[in-house]
Specification:
Elements: H1 15-23, E1 36-41, H2 45-58, E2 61-66, H3 72-80, E3 88-93, E4 114-118, H4 125-137, E5 141-144, H5 147-170, H6 177-180, H7 185-191, H8 198-206, H9 209-233, H10 238-259, E6 274-281, H11 286-296, E7 303-308, E8 314-321, H12 323-335, E9 339-341
Parallel strand pairs: 1-2, 2-3, 4-5
Antiparallel strand pairs: 3-4, 6-8, 6-9, 7-8
Helix pairs in contact: 2-3, 5-9, 9-10
The structure holds nicotinamide-adenine-dinucleotide (NAD) and prephenic acid.
């Protein structure tokens, strides 16, 4: 928002967090002199209604938004407090990090991502317009939904997958070091979000337990069937083994069919990018230099993955770019002395 010329005042119940965010360029931690255009509450879900109610009672803003990962609960809490909710919209940017706090923040986090808005019949048009302006400043894609429909949808695409990721990662806790050191990109993809703050996720799941439990019981049924199929594959009987193979194929094929439905950036169909792989030393500033060199060559990096080599101070950076930009980027990085890999 600061980059787009908006004046941002930061407040946090831990003033150090607001100071750090201000020092990073996210705004000022000085209080505004009077009511602001819009107050955006990004506290943990269980505190959202309380923080919003306090701001509304003080008349802190013309419009009030929150960005909590659940939408039905906070709205009902606000209604129970008897507040006039015409000036409020519950929102949820569908993008985040597994790390907390201002040091984990990035200015382009929401670019091209869906940002859910849950206005009701009573929402002031002026406030809806402020919310749309905010989403547009962050270059996100607005999606209007009913609060409860949102909660059912994120149970499927965010909350249940989060728990499954935690359960896969939990298998590693007491695993032998010899096995853990073999971790490749597959398990990194599946477990990244398991690094998130449990306190935040207890709040999120506590506000959406029913839909998540329903989905997890469907996953449990798939797990039971898959275990049965794997046991059948161990059988000495040919027919049993064939049955086992069919069962495994079924779950893998259904996985393919679901995976192709995951949209790429901007909510469109997934795009085919080409990957340019660079070997880096594990030292501060390396990624920033690669990005600067790519920028100088006029190449937009669409996505990036980093794979650290076990036991070495080196890593492989996979830069995903539009196919026509791959050759330009390869040449520019080679010219600047980067070691490229296939
Ligand atoms: N991290 C994500 O992936 C993500 C994505 C979309 C939405 N959200 C939602 O955004 C909100 C913030 O999540 P985050 O990941 O930025 O967490 P965070 O821990 O980085 O930030 C939360 C901040 O709220 C402050 N806080 C706690 N209680 C407060 C209170 N009562 N009053 C004022 N400040 C208070 C904390 O000090 C902290 O600085 C949550 O509601 C979360 O559901 C998170
Ligand atoms: O990718 C991450 O690290 C996230 O935290 C992302 C994610 C998600 O599940 O998509 C997690 C919770 C938020 O409510 C929104 C986004």
């Amino acid at each position: 928002l600061v980059q787009r010329g908006v004046t941002v005042h930061l407040a946090d119940h831990d003033p150090q967090q607001a100071r750090t965010a201000a020092a990073l360029g996210a705004g000022t931690d000085a209080a505004p002199e009077g009511p602001v255009d819009v107050a955006i509450v990004a506290a943990p879900p269980a505190h959202v209604a309380g923080v919003l109610a306090d701001a509304m009672r003080r008349g802190a803003a013309r419009g009030y938004l929150d960005v909590a990962s659940v939408k039905g609960g906070p709205r009902r809490e606000l209604e129970a407090l008897g507040l006039d909710l015409g000036g409020y919209i519950g929102t949820h940017p569908m993008s985040g990090r597994e790390k907390s706090g201002p040091l984990a923040a990035t200015a382009d986090l929401f670019e091209g991502r869906p940002w859910v808005l849950t206005p009701t019949r009573d929402t002031d048009t002026e406030v809806l317009n402020l919310a749309l302006e905010l989403v547009s400043h962050c270059r996100a894609v607005p999606v209007v939904m009913d609060a409860d429909a949102h909660d059912r949808a994120v149970a499927l695409v965010s909350h249940m997958p989060h728990l499954v990721s935690s359960m896969v990662a939990a298998r590693l806790e007491h695993a032998e070091e010899a096995a853990v050191r073999l971790c490749g990109q597959g398990i990194r993809d599946v477990t990244r979000i398991a690094a998130s703050d449990p306190r935040m996720w207890i709040d999120i799941l506590s506000a959406n337990p029913g839909p998540v439990a329903d989905l997890l019981s469907d996953v449990a049924a798939d797990l039971d069937e898959t275990v049965r199929a794997l046991r059948a594959l161990q059988s000495s009987d040919d027919a049993e083994r064939r049955k086992g193979g069919t069962g495994i194929e079924d779950v893998l094929r259904r996985g393919n069919a679901g995976q192709v439905r995951v949209p790429g950036k901007h909510g469109s169909a997934p795009r085919a990018y080409e990957t340019v792989v660079v070997l880096i030393d594990d030292q501060p500033g390396q990624l920033a230099r690669i990005f600067a060199d790519a920028g100088r060559a006029g190449v937009n990096i669409e996505d990036v993955r980093i794979e650290h080599a076990t036991g070495q101070q080196a890593g492989l950076v996979q830069l995903m770019v539009e196919p026509k930009a791959a050759a330009v980027l390869t040449e520019a990085l080679r010219d600047r002395g980067w070691a490229l890999r296939q």
